[in-house]
């Protein structure tokens, strides 16, 4: 029996919309995307917002660190399409009840946000979602904190490096899986590979039946998967 790999939009659909924008997420859902990957930080007043970088310089018309702005201050800046930086609450309102898989990345590896795991988990617990969220992070400590708060959720460690004995590592760290930059043979744990836009690499990963690929161009990946 073959298992179809899921296709997750990395930061939404950055080939067509500003990354991590509600417009991109809404478009992807309207087109029936399997899953969405997105990155979460906290504002100075502890509101979870969706953006990749710790600073707003690259993706908005403002400058500075998310952690130094209140939500009201952050919302005076705009993404390239004019929309404000999305809050997690707005995102959850958009995806609630939709048949889309979610991969929420705690962006806590460069800047740690005190209490982010508890705040985010509470919001997820209060939202009507079709599938369980996969929480990922490059910061294993964040996943450990989250697991201590809610053992029932799915946690995945993000790594650019090879993981020795992935099954043992996942069991001992209470992880459902690994989100890897490079494919590794493994069994009994989920593997999602990022960020894959190359057609040949996508074909190989679909052949390996990884649980998911995380891509900037979900429409290309969907066409490739359909042709296999
Ligand atoms: O979750 C996969 C990928 O998003 C991890 O890297 O830096 O794009 O968040 P980054
Ligand atoms: Mg990410």
Automatic annotation (TrEMBL):
GO terms for biological process: lipid metabolic process. It comes from the Bacteria. InterPro entries: GP_PDE_dom, PLC-like_Pdiesterase_TIM-brl. SUPFAM superfamilies: PLC-like phosphodiesterases. One of its GO terms (molecular function) is phosphoric diester hydrolase activity. Coiled coil: none annotated. Pfam families: GDPD (PF03009). Residues 5-225 form the GP-PDE domain. Gene3D superfamilies: Phosphatidylinositol (PI) phosphodiesterase. PANTHER family: GLYCEROPHOSPHODIESTER PHOSPHODIESTERASE, CYTOPLASMIC, GLYCEROPHOSPHORYL DIESTER PHOSPHODIESTERASE. This is Glycerophosphodiester phosphodiesterase. It comes from Lactiplantibacillus fabifermentans DSM 21115.
């Amino acid at each position: 029996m073959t298992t179809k790999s899921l296709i997750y939009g990395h930061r939404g659909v950055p080939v067509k919309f500003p990354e991590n924008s509600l417009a991109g997420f809404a478009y992807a859902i309207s087109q029936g995307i399997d899953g969405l990957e997105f990155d979460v930080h906290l504002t100075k007043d502890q509101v979870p917002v969706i953006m990749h970088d710790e600073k707003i310089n690259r993706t908005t018309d403002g400058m500075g660190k998310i952690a130094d702005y209140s939500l009201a201050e952050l919302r005076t800046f705009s993404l390239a399409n004019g929309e404000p930086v999305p809050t997690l609450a707005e995102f959850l309102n958009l995806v609630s009840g939709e048949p889309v898989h979610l991969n929420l990345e705690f962006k806590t590896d460069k800047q740690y946000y005190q209490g982010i795991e508890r705040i985010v988990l509470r919001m997820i617990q209060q939202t009507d979602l079709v599938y369980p969220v996969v929480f990922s992070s490059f910061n294993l400590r964040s996943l450990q904190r989250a697991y201590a708060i809610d053992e029932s959720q799915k946690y995945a460690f993000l790594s650019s490096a090879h993981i020795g004995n992935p099954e043992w590592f996942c069991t001992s760290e209470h992880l459902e899986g690994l989100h890897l930059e490079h494919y590794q043979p493994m069994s009994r744990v989920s593997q999602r590979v990022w960020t894959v836009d190359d057609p040949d690499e996508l074909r190989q990963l679909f052949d390996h039946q990884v649980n998911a690929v995380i891509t900037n161009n979900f429409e290309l990946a969907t066409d490739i998967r359909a042709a296999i």
